[in-house]
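Q: Can I see a sequence and its folded structure?
A: Here is a first one.
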Amino acid sequence: MSSTKSTQSTPSTFPELAANAALVLIAVACSLLDRQLAAQASAFERDAGFTERLYRVRKNARGRNY
């Protein structure tokens, strides 16, 4: 009968630690991007898009000139 490796925990190696650190950084970046996207969607609904805001500014500027 051949022996198999034990599944007991072994000290982590540098590549494993580096990979885990990279996964943590990716998860944090994804979370921050999700928050930014939600904030931008909320601002778009509240303040309208760039073209609509530009139209509003130009319309107000024309109203003051006449």
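Q: Show me another, different protein.
A: A second, unrelated one:
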Amino acid sequence: MTFGEWQQLRPESAAREVRRRAEAHLTPAQRKTAIAVLMDETVLAAAFAAAPPGSSLRGVPYLLKDMFDVAGLPTFGGSSFLPEVRPAPGRDSGIVRDLGTVGAVMAGKTQLFEFAWGLTGENAHYGDCEHPRFPGRTSGGSSSGSAAAVAAEVVPFAIGTDTGGSIRVPAAFCGIFGYRGVPGDEWITDAVQLAPSFDTVGWFTRSASDMRHVVGAFVGLRYNERTPNGCYLEMPGLDPEVATACREAAAELSRPADASTQAELLAKFAPAAETYGVLAGLESWKIHRKWAEKYRARYGPLLQDRLDRARGISQAQVAAVEPSYEAIRLTWTKFFLTYDYLIMPASPFPALEKADCTQANRLRMMALTTPASLGALPVLTIPVPLPSGMSTGLQVVLNHPQSPVLSWVLDVCRQSSA
């Protein structure tokens, strides 16, 4: 169902349809690992009825990653203990209030990788979030439940967060659109933090048309009469079928980067995963160190390992990566003097099986996602189907959230799917 089709339903019918879809489109096990809270049908119907008439997203339901507060509901952040160490939410997060102003209806909250500190859909407390169409494979993370719910057509859009790729990877794995904003905006400041210098808010939709609606309502769409100038950067380390599919999909939007540009970008981006790991890891440790000892047994094994590594980050390590951090940011500045956008693969492989959710594959994903994270840049992820029936994605990296490239790319995507 499109946004428009949801808006044609009466409040009681819309509330019933949300719950019906959750039960029909996800197995009981999938619901447990994807959805943290689904609002009662009566409460939902009242929320649909209260949506402001004429508002841009009136009557469109969404699910919210459980990193944001909703008054009266606990915020767990994928953990087992967060409500015990954090005050109970007294009011809704800013993004929830603003979504309500434009008429969107919060239907519930979604599960995630514990504290949003990972790119797979694993969670030791609530179970691993599977891809809704490929059981045994991950939805990607950390915004796992939000991506799975949109891919399964439970709701037409869902809110996520992206620090090092947590919207881009699940969008690619689940074959849907994803939008990542920029660090420091008003919507991310009252979310549960992971690494504040890199945390961003964003969302998923199934179609380019629906993505246009959300971006138009919250970011604003700008247009430019000239065709934007961009290029495609083919990255190393991709599975062969992914490399071919991304190259062919990117050809509809841009030409390949010339040899000089490709060489410079690859050289400057090469240390991105390591650089991000040190800088974001140190910020994450500063947030978790007040809980790390007392609640160690309440963290899952993956988080215990990440905490141990983050605890050991030294100032010498930080000093060692600072030059590459500055070089990456300068490279982006230089790139956008000539180009309007850069296209990169969003994942090096399709959705992973549990046994393949390894540190080595995590680093392969981060090699693709962390250059934009370090540049503090907005990114639109568009789905790319694979011959296997699974999917990957393309990152369209922009220099500003209101870049005219955004509307242009979504128009191209709409036309190609028509």
